[in-house]
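Something for you to look into today, if you have time. Just paste the record in under my message, thanks.
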Amino acid sequence: MDRTPLSLKWLEVFQHLAREGSLQNTAKALGLSVSTASQHLSSLEKVVGTDLFDHKRRPLVLTTAGQILLCRVEESMTALRLGLAEVVSKDLSALLRILRVSMIEDFDPEITPRLMQHLLGDLPSCDLSFRTGPSHEVLGQLQSDESDIGVASFDEVLAGPLKQRPLLHDPFVIVAPRDMTDAAQMFLNNQTGLPFLRYSKKQIIGRRVETQLRRLRLSIPRRIELESTAAALSLVSKGQAWTITTALNCASTPQFLAGLQVLPMPDGAFARQLSLFGREDLPASLFDLVETHLRQLITAHVIRPMISVEPKLRDQFRLLMPE
């Protein structure tokens, strides 16, 4: 029986094109010319004897045959990457041509730049791509294979089939202007005269806050909704509003801390869990390396500085141990 001629590069182009829908984007991602990527696809379609994409549509869409083949290619490529990770040399940069990292935007000021510096030293032969955004975007990028590894707020619905390791217990807190002497409960009871700044319900953090308010049977008028933590805390520091956010969000905006008081929730304390997520086929050694750096950076540049300003958060704002 004759062997079917196949190239791993053909399958890689096919897999990327199925996600991108664009030959130009696929070629760029794989470091190929458009003509070379097109030739690889043509060769694969010639071998299988049928079109794998509807070439009349833009973006390109898989045919029925293409959908069937993609399922098998995804399984095979995952198994191949795992096998390579088990036998490849100890040079971690040999595992990937490019490492795509997505980080929760709360880490922008202190953590993300430092993590980038560490990885540049650890992975000299690997290109790095960093993206930042809210948690739901980070998880979406991981699920759609736009990223290899990332940090986000854990959400069981969005997390899906990803590696996950807990990193940080991040308590929700009431944040008010520093010169106000009102007790935390007065803010929750809407007795201070200041408007309450809400997060958008599109964000995981916004949904968490709204769920907790319902559990506490609190009905606070909806007047202002923001997606930006920096914008919200700027308004609070100027005495124009109050909000419910997390200790990490406060630590990530040190320029406003002098004008803020951070109050633990008086009843119904709750927190979010930040986790490190990765593709299932991401080599364990690389996942462990990123986790080690993150734990050291979070402790030194987020937790300790925040605790020094707000000691009452010491027991709540802490690293989480691996399960």
Remarks:
- The chain has three domains: 8-87, 92-168+275-310, 170-271.
